[in-house]
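Budget justification aside, the reviewers requested a transparent look at the raw inputs and outputs of the sequence design task funded under Objective 1. We therefore reproduce one unedited record. The lines immediately below are the structure tokens for a 224-residue chain.
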């Protein structure tokens, strides 16, 4: 089994699998090569299992491997087309009713960047539209909208009236995005989760609980 030894100031030896499935052994200087080799042999099954688990997780969820992107509540097929200098194609993302076509240099980095840019542009446009609509209904004003690619939060609202939304929200169906936007807009009226806050949400969106639960259940599948 191939592995890389990284010498570090540490007390124990650690075996880690990096994002490219390489085996890295972090070891203090006093541990000999032979001791490391023995340790690797002893942990061979664990290492192989860990690599396999990691690979499966990534391959079943990450669009780059599945070639399926979740967008507005549906999985869409993804085709990556390499652009050459000759063809004069500029790198971009085309989205049609058949799915995504990514025209890139073929590298993973550029394809990912293009997809993120596409979601960001779409998010800015759609979320601004929804925020304007709900702000009018609730009779409040917001300042600006920021789109972030963050791990957990779907949206937030500052006391200054700035709204922030998660880029991954675009994976969800429009009805669910509506709920997140209304929730944040409502915070401009009630800066808490009081009974009055939920009552006002319910008046405008009687089925808000179903929409709220959607994120709890499927949110972890949103990967861009
Ligand atoms: Zn809230």
């Amino acid at each position: 089994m191939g592995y890389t030894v990284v010498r570090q100031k540490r007390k124990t030896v650690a075996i880690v699998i990096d994002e490219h499935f390489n085996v890295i052994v972090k070891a203090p200087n006093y541990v000999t090569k032979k001791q490391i080799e023995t340790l690797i042999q002893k942990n061979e099954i664990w290492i192989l299992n860990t690599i396999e688990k990691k690979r499966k997780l990534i391959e079943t969820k990450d669009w780059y491997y599945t070639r399926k992107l979740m967008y507005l509540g549906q999985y869409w097929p993804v085709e990556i087309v390499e652009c050459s200098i000759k063809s004069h194609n500029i790198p971009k993302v085309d989205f049609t009713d058949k799915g995504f076509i990514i025209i890139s240099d073929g590298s993973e980095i550029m394809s990912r960047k293009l997809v993120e840019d596409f979601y960001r542009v779409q998010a800015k446009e759609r979320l601004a539209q929804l925020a304007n609509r709900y702000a009018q209904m609730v009779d409040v004003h917001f300042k600006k909208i920021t789109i972030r690619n963050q791990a957990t939060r779907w949206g937030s609202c500052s006391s200054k009236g700035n709204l922030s939304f998660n880029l991954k929200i675009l994976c969800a169906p429009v009805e669910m995005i509506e709920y997140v936007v209304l929730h944040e807009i409502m915070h401009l009226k009630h800066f808490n989760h009081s009974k009055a806050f939920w009552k006002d949400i319910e008046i405008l969106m009687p089925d808000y609980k179903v929409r709220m639960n959607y994120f709890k259940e499927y949110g972890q599948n949103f990967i861009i």
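The chain has a mean pLDDT of 91. The longest strand covers residues 74-82. Computational costs for records of this kind are itemized in the attached budget.
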